[in-house]
Design goal:
Number of strands: 2
Shape: globular
Number of helices: 15
Structural class: mainly alpha
Distance between the termini: 31 Å
Length: 341
């Protein structure tokens, strides 16, 4: 039986959440060495899971606007404030928090949501170019201690703005492009199997082009290699292409997997995907809290971070299943709706 709800998007959110858990636990455990398979697995996910998370937020943003445009702006401004506060609290524990960046993404997206798809696409394409221009004006490494991941003046006005827009983990320039791509997707017929297949093909091609160019051009020397990196910091054009491609691929495959129907055997993952905000916060507060209590925040192997992440993800699914038997929304999803409408 066909369902109006796109369960594939919930599954994609779970995949993005799981990917971010692997990457973030890898960061905090100091996993710089390990088996080749583990390092390759984590390197593949780096930046791609977060990009998919933001594109999906853009899809949700666009669908919400399409459903209720009249009261959309005040609601989203309140949600942006909520996410900013929650994200900044998270920053006290984990410097690579993404939630507070959503606040600025949402504010700027509110100005663009009423424009045509063409205008939004142009802005999305321009932001990576603006970032390159900024590299010539501001030293990208300003305020960073890469060994400790401390940002010296984050809690000052200038430092906060610089981090938020330019050289933080997920700066609005150019990461806002991912959210705008999601808004563009929300205007398409995501129930269409043809479109879903096109997303898979487009995502695969984008990833292939990004990695092919990065590998081949890197042969011309270290300086060139830095400019054609597909790593998320700094977020150069080939990374933006790879991140967008990964998001398209994950979303396309997820939608095809469900084909407009509710798949019972996949329901544990979609239920967890509906609580992505709660689970994201939990992996910082609870997951990293456990690692700290056990003295496992540094010096662990890549394999360890993968094993611990897998256990946490499994526990998250079990929690989500139990919680959903009694409540419709996750704790933070409920709080978000309660406070912002």
């Amino acid at each position: 039986m066909k369902s109006k709800r796109l369960h594939g998007l919930d599954f994609a959110r779970f995949c993005a959440f799981a990917g971010m858990v692997y990457v973030n636990f890898h960061i905090v455990t100091g996993a710089g060495t390990g088996a080749i398979w583990a390092e390759v697995f984590l390197l593949t996910l780096e930046g791609k899971a977060a990009a998919t998370f933001v594109v999906l937020a853009g899809v949700g943003f666009g669908l919400a606007y399409n459903a209720r445009p009249s009261n959309f702006t005040p609601t989203m401004l309140k949600r942006a404030l909520f996410l900013l506060v929650i994200g900044l609290i998270n920053m006290l524990i984990f410097p690579a928090d993404i939630i507070h960046y959503y606040a600025i993404y949402f504010v700027f997206a509110l100005f663009l949501i009423r424009y045509s798809t063409k205008i939004i696409a142009i802005v999305a394409l321009l932001l990576p170019l603006i970032f390159i221009a900024l590299l010539f004006l501001i030293d990208y490494e300003t305020a960073w201690n890469w060994k400790t991941l401390d940002y010296a003046d984050f809690w000052t006005f200038n430092g906060f703005i610089r981090n938020l827009f330019y050289n933080g983990f997920h700066p609005a320039i150019p990461w806002l492009s991912f959210l705008l791509l999601g808004i563009i997707l929300s205007r398409l017929d995501l129930h269409s199997k043809t479109l879903q297949k096109k997303l898979v093909i487009a995502g695969s091609v984008m990833l292939a082009i990004a990695y092919s160019l990065s590998i081949s051009l890197s042969l011309f020397g270290a300086d060139i290699a830095e400019l054609v990196s597909v790593l998320p910091m700094p977020p150069l054009p080939l990374y933006m292409l790879a991140g967008s491609g990964a998001a398209f691929l994950v979303i396309g495959v997820s939608l095809l997997l469900f084909n407009g129907e509710k798949k019972k055997f996949l329901s544990p993952f979609t239920i967890a995907g509906k609580q992505a905000l709660t689970l994201y916060i939990a992996h910082i507060i609870i997951g990293m809290g456990i690692l700290e209590e056990l003295g496992l925040l540094e010096g662990q192997t890549a394999q360890f971070s993968i094993y611990f992440s897998s256990i946490f993800i499994f526990a998250s699914i079990i929690y989500a299943l139990i919680w959903s038997r009694f409540f419709k929304n996750g704790p933070f999803e409920w709080l978000l709706r309660k406070l912002t409408g």
